[in-house]
Amino acid sequence: MKKLAFLIGLLISTSSFAQHHFQITEAAQLIWQKVYESPANATQYHEMLFNSGKFSDIAELNGKITCWLNETPIDYNQAGYDIMQVSMFVRDGNMKCFATIQFKEGKYRVTLEQIQVIQRYDTHLSKKGEITYLDRHAINRKGTFNKMVENNSLVVLDALFKSMFEYKQATHFNDEW
Length: 177
Description:
Blueprint: H1 2-17, E1 22-24, E2 30-37, H2 42-52, E3 55-61, E4 64-73, H3 88-91, E5 93-104, E6 107-119, E7 131-133, H4 134-138, H5 147-151, H6 153-164
Antiparallel strand pairs: 1-2, 2-6, 3-4, 4-5, 5-6, 6-7
């Protein structure tokens, strides 16, 4: 009975472990997509992106925003991992990607594509500034997720993207002091 309870617990923990918002398109490209519930509109969201300083080439047209996420360090601690649990390309890299944000009443959808890992320093495997598209690591020859990458790297990146694209209302400071 104890063994059965242990196996069920293990199955539940490992099946929930690899949950993320990454998808493989029909063209065998990796995208990240998430829908958020929020009263924010495109103008408010545009202001948040601009004020964060983490985005460039921000364009708003017909209630849709497109932009580039500038090189951003990958915070694996935010996803509950330590340095020994993540792959070298996540540990030693910065993220950069193209984002499209679409709005409907009370919600918005973020789609990330052209997801890149940029090497922060020279190693025996790569040079500083070297760009690798995440597709190369995440998708295997069968066109499915590489399980090793899915179980840690994609979970780490999912946590980074979820927090980065969640609408946070700007705080206004009181100038009367």
